[in-house]
Amino acid sequence: MVLVLYLIIINIVAFIFYGVDKKKAEKHQRRISEASLILYAVFGGAFGAFIGMIVWHHKTRKPKFRILIPVLTLLWMAICAFCLYQNYHLVVTRYEYTNKKVISENDGFRIVQVSDLHCQLFGINQKTLLEKIEAEDPDIIVVTGDAVDFTHPIYPFTEQFFEGALKIAPVYYIDGNHETNINTKRFSKYLKKLHNMGVQFIDNLKVDLDGIELAGAEERSLGSVDRLGLFEDDQKLHILLAHEPRYIDTYERAGADVVLSGHIHGGQIIIPGKGGFISPDIEFFPKYYAGEYNVGDTTMFVSRGLGNSILPVRINNYPEIVVVTLHSKQ
User: Fold this and answer.
1) Cα–Cα distance, 201 to 310 (Å, whole number)
2) Are 129 and 161 contacting, i.e. CB atoms less than 8 angstroms apart?
3) Mapping DSSP to helix (H, G, I), strand (E, B) and coil, where does residue 244 land?
């Protein structure tokens, strides 16, 4: 979303500046330097510069503009097409999980995990995202934090997702580091709206789902989740929603059988043979960046998420919906 806004703004600015420079030339006033006009195109405003040349009939006779600006326009069109595909090509990753604690009635129970939406938009009213989720026929949908982004909180996009998801299956939601950074009053108003929709916010709470204990770890208390007493009935399957994966040892001590996590965004850039490049915490090649991990009797599934964090584009790291299907050993 940030990249799209940046490109829109810089192209509008480039278009306007080419017009301003044309007017200055006509009035014999001090001009905008040619180097500045070219730099706007170099840094993403090539399309606006190209349209400005045509509309204002400006710099069309100068070879360096007549050749360079169209070339930069084509280059930026290719870059934009690549970035948009990397950012919006949704994929579904499916996992099968077997445990003797899964009762026969829950054999085939499907959980869809959505993580790190960051106010990202996938189609009008989130149609593309919601259609992908509905096709998985989930029993529940879990949202593991950072549904919003405190740096550019376009809440309606996130609310559209929740509204549509509730028509598919019950929705359970925990906070992430971005939710904890939002103004308390504004976040409370946002949560109240979700509650009225029917979203179940389960930070430091647990829900009994007939043979499954589903619990949510609050972002502020992740380091002490093993002391919260979230899980009591050891006969039930314990599923923990926890935004940050680095505390897997803590989750294992807390008695979680399954952990659903996110936060790392797949490392933003996935380097073949090396893994995710950088985490939102500026950790290079984080250990738990995406996929399935096991510590003791705990299995953790880490989603690459949907939105972006440090960088405005993903590379070799498509936005991901995670599906976990439970199976009984009996």
Assistant:
1) 27
2) yes
3) coil
